Amino acid sequence: MPTPTRGFLGRRRERDPRLPPGQYDVGGDWPVLTAEPTPRIAPETWSITVDGLVEQPTTWSWDEAHRLPPSEYRGDIHCVTTWSKLDTRFSGVSVDTLLEAARPTAEAHFVMATSRTGYTANLPLADVTGGKAWLVWDFDGRPLTPEHGGPVRLLVPHLYFWKSAKWVSRLTLLTRDQPGFWEQNGYHDRGDPWRQQRYQGD
Amino acid sequence: MTEALGADVVGAAPSGGWRSAVVAGVRRPVPRSVQLRLDVEDRVDHLPGQHYVVRLTAPDGYTAQRSYSIASAPGDPLLELFVERLDDGEVSTHLADVVEPGDVLEVRGPIGGWFVWDGESPALLLAGGSGVVPFVSMLRTARALRRTDLLRIAVSVRTLEQLPYADELLQAGALVVTTREARGIRPAGRLTGADLVPLWEPGQTVYVCGSGGFAESATGLLVELGVPPSVIRVERFGPSGAPV
Asked: Which ipTM did the prediction report?
């Protein structure tokens, strides 16, 4: 245990068990953290493509994606900058549904999510399958705003939120892991909040 | 520092784990904030624009950590952090209200490979309020390199009294716009596209740092002026909240 800091008692003594180590509850707020200007993307010009190591590379338009079976996430999200937001509700479509159509090959082990802006985030395939990842367009029953990644963002809530790429437009299946945007800039390749995988080497 | 910074982002990941830092100086030059000068054990040189994480530990082992931008240049023997005090903050209130010289803090860094200046490319720096802190590091680095000609700086702040490093920025020729008071013949008001026209030049990388509201409006102005989004780097901080 590190040496206590003189005079510091800590304010929040009742820790919600849903908060991973080093995180605090941001309450009703939802901070916006992005490294680039917010793009304004009209839903009718948005599409999502699943390509790379798949048997059937596939692109869905906004309307086509909305005709897929809907799926919802209710739970918590965690940002590496130490805020967590509890009891969120997002709706969209499960990434499983997209992958069932595109059919990853046996060699596919990783996914690179790419945004319309060029932002990228890498993920193990196992972290976006089995009901753990979504493409979402609604937050709390309302369209996701551009600042928060609208019209559509990736949602991988069990990992730090930089993995949940805003303005997502492509999921590329890969054999080997490649660092995405923040991963090239010092952040962890996996980003599990419960293990505090914040930076490379954690 | 005697040569331009390398393009490789050597300091992107924090080098090693937590280090102890002895507080060498505490100043409160503007209201509701604190400037800390830290003597960091085995300090690794940072790149201007990077940040450090500060971790506080309670007697029962409870910890809280937050990130703060670096104001000092890499060649400064001490690490200078500037911290804005948030009323409901857990770490910033301790740093602003309790910390004294001689205290020991745990720090980790330097961190961040994106919002950094290489010391040799032209850059336009747009800050809202305490968003100037990483730009102060860039400015001090430019002075050490004798390349202040590469930087153009514009700052938006409520009142001049609330601007950290105001003298240093004004001396460097920064455009300072105040949103809650008139300055000279200029009435109170926000940064405008007309302010940016004489500052923007093709070839610049544009760095925007401030609250979410400031970042949103400043990047909006830039894109309207025709600045390619691909050259704009943004660092936002604080709650989702109020524009400067």
From this structure: 0.84
